[in-house]
Amino acid sequence: MALWAGVRAHAAELPPRTERVTLRLDREGRRHLIVTSAGEPWLPAERLRGALGGQVVCWWAPPDGAPRVVAGPEAGFPATAFEEENPEMGARARAWATDALGEVAGRVVWDLYGGVGDTAVRLAAAGADAISVDADERALAWARARPVPRPVRWIAGRAEDVVERLPEPHAVVLTPPRGGLHWDVTLRLSGRPVARIAYVSRDAATLARDLTRLAATYRVVAVRVFDLFPQTAHVATVAVLEGA
Question: Among the residues of the chain, which ranges form H helices?
């Protein structure tokens, strides 16, 4: 809120065609200002950063492009990496999903759409040979620097582009964006079923669609809903599937 008050007081320093402003406090305690605007890149961002006391990292993104740092340090936690709106409840959902896979020690487990690697670290702690895939290269760079109890294979790329080249898994954790699974991921999982899938969904409609598509080769054995924000529609749904 303090950052928002500062941004409002110096709004004239934002790009003239600003479409969206995002404020974020990351895991390392740093504050970020992410500005999406059409037109030229936000080159004079350092002026706003100075007006805010210099204790903020400024990012600029075109409406259909990737954000980049335009003022402040680039190293550290990637402010554009996805995290649950309620981190504590998101962690509980992730823990339940990984525990639902059963015994994974010494077995290959895919972590698709793995972000900064929270799921992969849990899998590694359980003794799995974890392979974590995410399209956000900044998120993967931060994940690679994390301490892990055993090696994790980190792959930067879209899940649909790499699944055919990955080693055969015993189990899979899916944490897709709200749009759900890409059709190529669904085909790969249906064509060569695995023992168990834990699907962590942020959208009930796309989860229902994807479970219907997977129903030919899997059966749902457990579902649990995690209430991210009471009295709102924000929930995380974890569905556990077994190969038929």
Answer: 2-9, 45-51, 87-99, 118-125, 137-144, 159-162, 183-191, 204-214
- Domain layout of the chain by residue ranges: 2-71, 87-243
Question: How far apart, in whole angstroms, are the C-alpha atoms of residue 235 and residue 244?
Answer: 28
Backbone dihedral region of 37: left (phi > 0), alpha (psi from -120 to 50 degrees) or beta? beta
Token reading at 166: 């990955």
Q: Which residues are bridge partners to 173 per DSSP?
A: 111, 198
> What band does 121 get if pLDDT is binned at 50, 70 and 90?
very high
Is this prediction's pTM over 0.90? Answer: no
pLDDT tens-place string over residues 133-175: 999 888 998 899 999 989 999 999 999 999 999 999 999 999 9
Short-list 97, 154, 155, 146, CA closest to 126: 97
CA 100 vs CA 7, 123, 172, 235: distances in Å:
44, 11, 11, 19
**Could you say which architecture CATH assigns to the domain 87-243?**
3-Layer(aba) Sandwich (3.40)
